[in-house]
Write a structure and sequence with these properties.
There is one protein chain. The protein is built from 28 helices and two strands. With 810 residues, the chain is an all-alpha fold. It is elongated, with a radius of gyration of 68 Å.
């Protein structure tokens, strides 16, 4: 029943019968274990005097219980009294027993004192024994730790840092957990991080020293690596040569080529020593890599391998930039280039070694990236510095260095195709320097030449010339000594120098890993440049020099003819040294034919020009008395000298091709005719007498006689005399005074004076007319025949009308 239910029930009971109800409440209080708050509340809250009545009932109930308790005690009292009586009886016996026990205890204590003392001693010994055993056990745990720590100290002192780190790992993982409760262990544990930092700093210091050392000694490392590559290559060349000789496969016809090739291969410049006396050194012999290994292992153990790798790569990249930076005067000597290359080779040889002996410190991707960066810088540096080289020997040595440099690094797995592409650029520059050098050689040859046929007095001299120049002439061979070659000394010298140029060009083409066909093509192209540009330019400059006379020009034409014929021998020479058959492989032809033809044409034109200039010089010596009344009866002295000069010159022209001599002779006669005509028609010449015309006619007759004497063979009929036909018809017109025929037949194809221009005739007639007025040359004539004077006036008028008609028609 809940508290509310009980409260309601109590209230109902109190209302029915108060006395009975209080009894019931008391019974509930005594019987219920539940809280009695509700029951008491019903008693106190029901009636004002209910509390007092309830207390009375409660006192009555307590008195009843006291009575019951007293009854029960009275019932058991006798038994209690009996128990006390029995206990008092036992008390006496108990006291006796106590006395006996006390006495027995005293006697027992007295008897056990010695046993207690011995027992205490045993206990104390047992405790000491236990402590000793415990100490021994603890020491057995601590001693290995102390021994390992002592070993760690010794390793640190001996700089065995990697072993020290391994010892630290053992201490931390195995030994320290066993004695971690001891203070000395805590001190050791606290000291280990400091030791690790010390080891890291010491190893990094050693690494820095190593990096500085290899930076200083990289040139020595590179020199050794390049020397070994050079020796290996030389050995391969010698072995190949022996095989060629064994199987009869000599690539070169001329013995000079293999010798010079070996010289090119061996001319690298390193100090060669006897292989039997000098032990082959490796990069491990030259460099102690232990600091790198040690530092790498240390950082691996420390778990800081990535930091070490980044530091190493960063420092090496800085060193790479320093190595790749050339000296400003590197291009001046081959030693500057050699030092530059050896340092780079040394750098990458070290990196290649690190790549193969370590894992992860240097990767192939890293070295490839570094090499590509370096290769671009190297190519830019070489392209810039090689442009300053003007000495072909220096360029050739640079090429040999680049080849050995490329072969060395290629042996270490670095791609070097771009270097060989650069060599093709340098080859063009090398050819340019060769062309400049040979331009000077050709100029010296031309300056030293006497431009006269080579004289020979015996068979030995003949063979010497033939050995230098491929000349074949059966007629010359049949002649007895002394005799002369048609060419001058410059021809064999030029031929030899062209072959020397081919040799020099071949030196650069070797070792470029190119086929014989490509080398043959390169040689032909460079030789074409030499012929078409350098030699052609030198010849043209020579031809145009003022001090070169007609005799020299004639000899130059003869020389170019023989050089042109020798071009086929140059082609055969290139074919022999490259072993390329012209029948099976398409090869570039030499352009020497056109070069020498152009030079010959220029020389021919210069001959014509100089011959005309010489004629002008003689003509300027003319000193006519244009007012003379009678001729001298003989030709002028200057003209006879001129004709004699022309005869001697045309005698020299006999060695020239027929058309050249004929053209020169015709050009000279035409120019002489034109010069004489201009002399008559000169504006500064105001008057001419008939005696002067007659004297002039004597000179023209000598010119015609010279032309008819066939100074140069090959002219048909009077072809050469036609050069003076204008003068002849003009002079005949005035000498015969045949104006009626001239005027009547003018414009007719069969006219006797077809080549006489009216303007020319008018100009000369007016000069003679003015003379007759001033000097009265025609005075007697006018007195005797005035009609003729009128005829002159009439002729002048008609000539003027013809001239005016021509101008209007034009």
């Amino acid at each position: 029943m809940s508290a509310a239910g009980k409260s309601g029930a109590c209230e109902a009971m109190l209302e029915e019968d108060p006395d009975q109800n209080y009894e019931n409440v008391l019974a509930e209080i005594q019987s219920f274990e539940l809280p009695i708050e509700a029951t008491l509340r019903s008693v106190y809250d029901d009636q004002p005097n209910a509390h007092k009545k309830f207390m009375e009932k409660l006192d009555a109930c307590i008195r009843n219980h006291d009575k019951e308790i007293e009854k029960m005690c009275n019932f058991h009292h006798q038994g209690f009294v009996d128990a006390i009586t029995e206990l008092l009886k036992v008390r006496t016996d108990a006291e006796k027993l106590k006395v006996q026990v006390t006495d027995t205890n005293r006697r027992f204590q007295d008897a056990g004192k010695e046993v207690i003392v011995q027992t205490e001693d045993i206990i104390r010994c047992r405790i000491q024994q236990r402590n000793i055993t415990m100490v021994v056990e603890k020491l057995q745990l601590c001693l290995p730790v102390l021994e390992m720590y002592s070993k760690l100290k010794e390793q640190m002192s001996a700089k065995r840092y990697y072993s020290a780190l391994k010892t630290m790992e053992q201490l931390e993982n195995v030994f320290f957990p066993r004695v971690s409760q001891y203070r000395f262990c805590q001190l050791m544990i606290e000291n280990l991080p400091k030791l690790r930092e010390d080891i890291k700093e010491i190893s990094m210091s050693d690494l820095k020293d190593f990096l500085e050392s290899i930076r200083k000694h990289s040139d020595k490392i590179g020199e050794t690596a390049m020397k070994q590559a050079q020796q290996q290559k030389t050995f391969s060349v010698v072995l190949q040569k022996q095989n060629n000789i064994k199987f009869g496969k000599n690539v070169y016809i001329n013995d000079r080529i293999p010798e010079e090739r070996n010289e090119v291969e061996l001319k690298y410049g390193f100090e060669e020593e006897d292989e039997n006396e000098e032990e082959v050194l490796t990069v491990q012999d030259l460099v102690d890599f232990s600091p790198v290994y040690r530092c790498l292992h240390i950082h691996s153990v420390l778990g800081d391998e990535e930091t070490f790798e980044n530091y190493y790569r960063k420092q090496r990249k800085k060193q790479a930039r320093l190595v790749l930076q050339p000296q400003s005067n590197m291009h001046e000597t081959v030693d500057g280039y050699r030092r530059y290359f050896t340092q780079i080779v040394g750098f990458f040889v070290v990196e290649d070694h690190i790549l193969h002996v370590t894992q992860g410190l240097v990767t192939r991707a890293y070295t490839d990236e570094l090499w590509n960066m370096a290769l671009s810088k190297i190519i830019a540096v070489l392209r810039a510095h090689s442009s300053y080289c003007t000495d072909p020997d220096l360029v050739l040595e640079l090429k040999n260095l680049i080849v050995i440099f490329a072969d060395t690094l290629q042996g270490y797995g670095f791609p070097v195709n771009r270097l060989f592409d650069l060599l093709f650029e340098i080859r063009d520059q090398y050819n340019e320097t060769l062309l400049k050098k040979w331009a000077g050689v050709f100029r010296d040859i031309f300056e030293e030449d006497n431009y006269s046929p080579i004289p020979i007095v015996n068979e030995e001299e003949y063979k010497v010339v033939i050995s230098k120049f491929p000349f074949q002439d059966p007629d010359l061979e049949k002649q007895s000594f002394p005799k002369k070659f048609p060419m001058s000394q410059s021809v064999p010298h030029i031929y030899i120098q062209v072959k020397e140029f081919i040799y020099a060009s071949l030196k650069f083409s070797e070792s470029l890993h190119r086929s014989s066909t490509e080398i043959d093509d390169m040689l032909r192209k460079s030789t074409n440049l030499l012929l078409t540009r350098t030699l052609s330019s030198c010849l043209l400059n020579l031809i145009r020099k003022p001090h070169i006379g007609l005799t020299e020009l004639v000899q130059i034409i003869i020389n170019t003819t023989h050089l042109e014929q020798a071009c086929k021998y140059l082609e055969d020479f290139i074919t022999n040294i490259t072993n390329i058959s012209q029948e099976t492989v398409h090869t570039t032809r030499l352009y020497g034919l056109s070069t020498f033809k152009d030079a010959r044409h220029a020389a021919e034109g210069e001959i014509y020009t100089k011959l005309n200039q010489k004629i002008d010089e003689f003509v300027q010596l003319a000193d006519y008395d244009w007012t003379m009344s009678e001729p001298d009866g003989r030709a002028s002295g200057y003209l006879m000298d001129l004709i004699n000069f022309l005869r001697s010159i045309f005698q020299v022209f006999t060695h020239l091709p027929g058309k050249v001599a004929q053209t020169a002779c015709m050009s000279a006669c035409q120019h002489l005719s034109t010069s004489l005509m201009q002399m008559l028609l000169d504006n500064e010449l105001k008057q001419i007498s008939m005696g002067a015309v007659q004297q002039f006619n004597l000179d023209v007759i000598q010119c015609e006689l010279f032309a008819s004497s066939e100074p140069v063979p090959g002219f048909q009929g009077d072809t050469l005399q036609l050069a003076f036909i204008d003068l002849r018809q003009l002079l005949d017109l005035f000498m015969v005074w045949d104006w009626s025929t001239y005027l009547a037949d003018y414009g007719q194809p069969a006219s006797k004076y077809l080549r006489v221009n009216p303007n020319t005739a008018l100009t000369l007639l007016e000069k003679m007319k003015d003379t007759s007025k001033k000097n009265n040359i025609f005075a007697q004539f006018r007195k005797n025949d005035r009609d003729k004077q009128k005829l002159i006036e009439t002729v002048v008028k008609q000539l003027r009308s013809l001239v005016n008609g021509m101008s209007q028609h034009t």
